[in-house]
Amino acid sequence: MIRQAVGAVVETDGRVLLVYKVKGAQGKLAGKWDLPKGGVEPNDCSLEDALLRELREETGSSQFKLGSRLSEPLRFAFDAETSHILGCREQVTELYRAVYTGDGTDLVPLDEEIAEVAFFSREEALPLLFPETRRLLASLWQQEES
After folding, report:
1. DSSP 3-state of 111
2. Quick check: pTM over 0.85?
3. pLDDT in tens, 106-133
4. Cβ-count burial 89-114 (b if 16+ within 10 Å, e if not)
5. Rounded distance, CA 109 to CA 35, Å?
6. DSSP type of residue 3
7. Segments forming the whole domain that contains residue 128
8. CATH number at residue 58
9. How far apart are CA 109 and CA 38, in angstroms?
10. 117 within 8 A of 19, measured Cβ to Cβ
11. Band of the pLDDT at 44, cuts 50, 70, 90?
C-alpha cells in the first residue's frame, strides 16, 4: 500500500520554511528539519485542503498562499519497522509551492511532533533535509536558475 501525502515548499523573501521534527515513526524522524508535510486524511476534501490542514498543524499558521503543484512528487520507501507501524510500504508526497504571508508571530506549531518552525536560505536548508527531499529541491532550484 502507498501512503498519499502532501507537502509544501514555502518560500518568502528568498528563504524556505522548514519544521523541526522531534518525534515520528518510532523516533526515526526525531531531530530532523523537513518541509511541512503529512498524510492525506479521509475527511480532506482535496489535496489542497489536506495541505492547508498540515501547514496549520505543523506551523500554527493559516497565512499561506498556495501556488502550483510540482510536476514531480517526492517518493520514498519506508523501512520494515515504519512500514509495519503505518501499514504502508512507501509514500508519495505531492508538493506544492506556497508563500507565507504572515509576520512570523503566528509560527507556533500545534503538532506535538514539531518543535520549531524557521526560515533558511536555500543553501542553508539543503544539507538539513532528508536525501530524497534534498535531491528534489536541488534539481528544482537548479532548473529555476537556468
Report:
1. coil
2. yes
3. 999 998 989 999 999 999 999 999 999 9
4. eebebbbbebebeeeeeebebebebb
5. 13
6. E
7. 2-145
8. 3.90.79.10
9. 14
10. yes
11. very high
